[in-house]
Amino acid sequence: MASLLSPSAAISLRLKLNRSSAVSANTPSKICCTFPGNGRCQRLSFKTKAAGSVEGNVLDKESASISDKIDYGVVGIHHVGILCENLERSLEFYQNILGLEINEARPHDKLPYRGAWLWVGSEMIHLMELPNPDPLIGRPEHGGRDRHACISIRDVSKLQAILDKAGILYTLSRSGRPAIFTRDPDANALEFTQV
């Protein structure tokens, strides 16, 4: 499995493979990288500011960047996918403890696995009943040191009281800001940050 290269590392690799080529200022260089998961070769263009030819492993350059500005219209996060072993158990937590409502307009029967879409403000969590490739034990005690989804809330102390009443473990933010971390029944870490 190949790893992603930073723009400067990818340029350096290309230059090592083709030491005799001359590089002119702002010449786009196309690098082929294999991305984990789909195994396809993706073409990436990097602009470099270089002068002269490449001699050995040396390339004088002012900077390397993917582009001057990447703008393809990002407006927000649509949903976060969360794996669960048992959909009913997860819905008990997400609906009855956290108070999230199901988005009835999202189809479940068109997918090859069971699931549910839950509203989180104008965005959603997509619960997917699928095998979890992550270990359920040995995860960090504090969810802030693990992969996690963060949900903005108005009052951390109210959520803290809800979790206390339900007997659900949590940790407070290590930085002292108003945030609380907990885990769902499948050990997925969730952060709730007061805004």
From TrEMBL:
VOC domain sequence ranges: 76-195
Pfam families found in the cross-reference section: Glyoxalase (PF00903)
Superkingdom classification of source: Eukaryota
Protein name in the entry: VOC domain-containing protein
Originating organism: Gossypium barbadense (Sea Island cotton)
